[in-house]
Amino acid sequence: MLVWTQLGLFMATFVIHTFSLCKDPGYLQKPKNITFLQMMMQFDPVLLCPDCEIIRTDRSRHCSICNQCTERFDHHCPWINNCVGSSNHGLFMTFIFLMATLLLTTFVSLIVNFDCYENNVGNAAVRDASGLNFFMPLLLSYESYSKAWIMTANIIALLITGFFLLPVMLLTAIQTRNFCLNKTTSERFAKNKNASTSRTSTYLTSGSEAEIELLGGSVIEAMQTRDHSTATMPCLYNCYDMCCNSKQPDQKKIYLIQSHKNQKIQTRKAGGMHDNSDGSGSPGGNENPIGVKIAQDLEITEDFAAYEQKGGFKL
Asked: Helix or strand or coil: residue 112?
């Protein structure tokens, strides 16, 4: 019975591992019809990813191995050769739980059947009753079933299983804690855990509540960690969010929210400049000053490159 249980666990682990390997972990997609230069006009550059040309969200990170930004990034796992993010975190948790269970049952099975030679292989009556006499020659020669070989194989298998069981159990415990807290490994063990002022949602929520409700309520809710501390069983709600909530913030909507806010700032500054009789007021704008400077530098560089192609001078 234990053998069939382990075989079923192995097949289930293999299938879940394949899905975790192939599934998109939640890569943030570049918004359509919006160039990266337009984003720089509206956002502080620290909130943008120049490699992916997207707006960074609160829980996203850029993976240096995949070279893509992943929503709710946990870590890049070499076991599945993929990032663990919002879309495959539940699958990854299932995979490591099944693998831990498989290793544990294998470890216990090896200990319980440590004397398998005397009880099974070395007993002719047991071999005849269990059908081992039919299967044993198909796998190895009879000389390979000596007591010394079987005991050595048991010890090696026990050491290998125990070696992998400890880190897998530790990883399972860490991920279980992450699910209960609704936090990722990156968030729990980051050096600067309170860097909330640099989050995208902080910039978007600096407007009025009516504006946020009208333009960005769903976007901000999708970006931020949900607070279930007042719920009856917050742990279950957190586990559900980590496992099943794979919704990603709409990049285009984030851009439109920030653009709308910058237009309001431009309107206020324009009104203040008209009210300033001595003409000392500075003109407002809906563009980020740093973004404007970068855009101007890009335009100048492009002009120089075009002039160089015409043979004007060499850079």
From this structure: helix
Predicted confidence (pLDDT) per residue in 139-198, tens digit: 565 556 666 777 788 889 999 999 999 999 999 999 999 999 999 998 888 776 555 556
Cβ(273)–Cβ(284) below 8 Å: yes
Of 103, 99, 82, which is closest to residue 20 (Cα–Cα)?
Answer: 82
pLDDT tens readout for residues 123-149? 555 555 455 554 555 556 555 666 677
DSSP three-state, residue 68: strand
Read off the DSSP letter of residue 120. Answer: I
Number of neighbouring beta carbons within 10 Å of residue 66: 16
Structure tokens at 243: 């496992």
Judge contact between 247 and 85, C-beta under 8 A.
Answer: no
- Domains of the chain by residue range: 2-190
pTM of the model: 0.74
Nearest to 154 by CA among 213, 110, 105: 110
For residue 236, what are the β-bridge partners? none
Dist. CA 60–CA 87, nearest whole Å: 12
290's CB contacts (< 8 A; 6+ apart) are 40, 44, 45
**If residue 276 lies in a helix (H) or strand (E), which one and from where to where?**
none
Contacts 24+ apart (CB under 8 A), 200-207: 200/47, 200/55, 200/56, 200/57, 200/58, 200/254, 201/57, 201/58, 203/43, 203/44, 203/47, 203/258, 204/254, 204/257, 204/258, 204/261, 206/261, 207/261, 207/264
Residue 294's CB is within 10 A of a number of other CB atoms, namely: 15
Give the closest residue to 203 by CA, choosing from 136, 288, 104, 112: 288
315: confidence class by pLDDT, cuts 50, 70, 90: very low
Take residue 66 and report the two structure tokens written for it: 């995949």
Which residues neighbour 220 within 8 Å (Cβ) at sequence distance 6 or greater? 201, 204, 205, 212
The span from the CA of 260 to the CA of 254, in Å, is: 10
The phi and psi torsions of 2 (rounded to 5 degrees) equal: -65, -35
Helical (H) or strand (E) element with 81: none
